[in-house]
């Protein structure tokens, strides 16, 4: 019973990040959870969830949008909520282990400042591409952070 926990103890947060693999395709799903009553961590959790929805709505309301544009928007959301954006990407393609090594990969596989390709563009086979949107907010002074990630498109 949380009411019986000693004050100041057990206030923590954690974030499971699942990368299920279906045949040769990797997806991604992650959340931040808060244990205890730390108001900053509770705000962090709530803010990243709201920002994810805002990011998805922004994406859905654009007829064309590059990975760089969505990345910039996610950074603005972090500022709006009073956080820093904590990731060098704000998402990635669903695919054959799409983010094993960012520095070696094409930035067009990511929601990244160097991806200037329309995210709705078809792949080389002429198929639509599916994306994961990742919202990572941090407070570097408090040394805390959280994330919310799930399917953006399919």
Provide structural commentary.
- 23% of the residues lie in helices and 23% in strands.
- It has 2 helices and 10 strands.
- Strands 7, 8, 9 and 10 form a 4-stranded antiparallel β-sheet that branches. The chain has a two-stranded antiparallel sheet with strand order 1-6. Strands 2-5 form a two-stranded antiparallel ribbon.
- It starts with 11 loop residues before the first strand and ends with a strand.
- Mean pLDDT is 82; it is low at 1-11.
List the quaternary state of the chains: single chain
Q: Please compute the radius of gyration using only Cα atoms.
A: 17 Å
State the helicity in percent bands.
Answer: 10-25%
- In percent terms, what proportion of residues is strand? 15-25%
Could you say which overall geometry the principal axes of the C-alpha atoms support?
elongated
Mean pLDDT: 82
- Written as H for each helix and E for each strand, in order along the chain, the element string is EEEEEEHHEEEE
* Measured distance between first and last alpha carbons: 40 Å
Layout: helices, strands, pairs:
Elements: E1 12-14, E2 17-18, E3 21-22, E4 25-26, E5 29-30, E6 33-35, H1 39-60, H2 67-80, E7 84-85, E8 91-93, E9 131-139, E10 144-151
Give a short synopsis of this structure.
Strands 7, 8, 9 and 10 form a four-stranded antiparallel beta sheet that branches. Helix 1 packs antiparallel against helix 2.
